[in-house]
């Protein structure tokens, strides 16, 4: 990754303010600060991308079962999209959780979210079912999963 961007672990609530700035620019219906604070405490595996000392992307993940981890929120600031940063951040989280025993990663994504769906499919996530009205009435989610193929 280009040296001006750095991935670090999110280890302090003080980062939430900057995370919320990216969140608000990224989603039509962003998390409230209350929901993001809850996610902060619920998700032990949280990483962000820093540029010039400022957060420009983040991913929050929790452990769902012995080997499965779930992505709760993931975004890159609109100014820095399509530079490969989302892919780098996702790969970083996968690598770090693999060290803890993760072999499967799951998420929900809105059925109309072409950018995210393309990224996940490129990253070998596979589409499972659909959850109708997951986000709100008429806004559905696909379930995506990626499984680690054991290498011998
Ligand atoms: C989804 C998101 C995190 C992708 O971040 P990113 O840094 O732009 O992603 P990358 O640059 O790593 O893109 C990887 C691939 O995804 C695909 N992709 C990314 N943006 C795309 C777009 N707008 N349309 C179609 N495909 C897109 C491309 O295939 C791209 O590879 P390429 O640039 O070599 O063609 C970003 O668009 C985002 O923050 N969106 C709003 C929040 C969101 O939807 N989060 C996911 C919720 S489930």
Descriptive account of the structure:
The chain has 152 residues and is α+β, with helices and mostly antiparallel strands. The chain has one domain: Aminopeptidase, CATH 3.40.630.30. The protein is built from 4 helices and 7 strands. The protein has helices spanning 16-26, 33-42, 85-98, 114-122; strands at 5-9, 45-51, 54-63, 68-76, 104-110, 126-136, 139-147. Strands 1-2-3-4-5-7-6 form a 7-stranded mixed sheet, sandwiched between helices. A hairpin with a 2-residue loop joins β6 and β7. The protein is globular. The model has no long low-confidence stretch (mean pLDDT 96). Bound molecules: coenzyme A (COA). Coenzyme A binds next to β4, α3, β5 and α4.
Radius of gyration based on Cα positions: 15 Å
Can you tell me the CATH superfamily? Gcn5-related N-acetyltransferase (GNAT)
* Tally of individual domains: 1
Question: Which architecture per CATH?
Answer: 3-Layer(aba) Sandwich
Bound molecule kinds, no repeats: coenzyme A
What percentage of the residues does DSSP assign to strands (E)?
35-45%
Indicate the low-confidence ranges by residue numbers.
none
- Main beta-sheet annotation: 7 strands, mixed
Sketch the topology as an H/E string, one letter per element: EHHEEEHEHEE
| Class of secondary structure makeup | alpha+beta
Q: Looking at CATH, which topology would you report?
A: Aminopeptidase
| Spatial ordering of strands, largest sheet | 1-2-3-4-5-7-6
Number of strands: 7
Q: What proportion of the residues is helical, as a percent range?
A: 25-40%
- CATH classification, class level: Alpha Beta
The overall average pLDDT, rounded, is 96
Amino- and carboxy-terminal Cα gap = 29 Å
